[in-house]
């Protein structure tokens, strides 16, 4: 799968935003609560969607179901100024009812369609860890995956689902983040 530099860079920022929201200072998983809080602020957040799309896109986390992975993979190859119209993705994406309510607010904005396309790409990559890794190191997939593997885990599709990964995945991300901070010259957090 070919991922454009736009999505490669934004994917890292999006994952960092989710990681920042996931845990409180005691290490407790508070992602669900923090996302609920952000979702209530959508009227304000829409003003940030062009400058910091990753900070606003997280409100849609786990609110999209992808029915046509090929369409999504094609979308990821586009740069920000080459996106297809949002309505052309209608057959490929299903929004949870709560996500549709948020999308209705976003789509009233001048750059709303562009932003929703960004959201779709980011959420698709977030649900595909193997694609996310390949986006970072520039490799492409060989296309031999089944559709079941391509359709990210949608058990968490509704608002009541568990936000976030298993404890091992979150811990690994936290450790990788800590390692990166040490490489940047910061002391390791204990």
Taking the sheet with the most strands, its summary is: 2 strands, antiparallel
Low-confidence stretches: 131-165
Class of secondary structure makeup: mainly alpha
Number of domains: 1
Major sheet strand order: 1-2
* Multimerization status: single chain
Encode the helix/strand succession as letters.
HHHHEHEHHHHH
* Average pLDDT over all residues: 78
Q: What's the count of strands?
A: 2
User: How many angstroms does the end-to-end distance come to?
Assistant: 38 Å
Apparent shape: globular
Radius of gyration: 16 Å
Strand content: under 5%
Total helical elements: 10
Describe this structure in words.
The chain has one domain. Helix content is 52%, strand content 3%. The chain has a two-stranded antiparallel sheet with strand order 1-2. It is globular, with a radius of gyration of 16 Å. About 18% of the residues have low confidence.
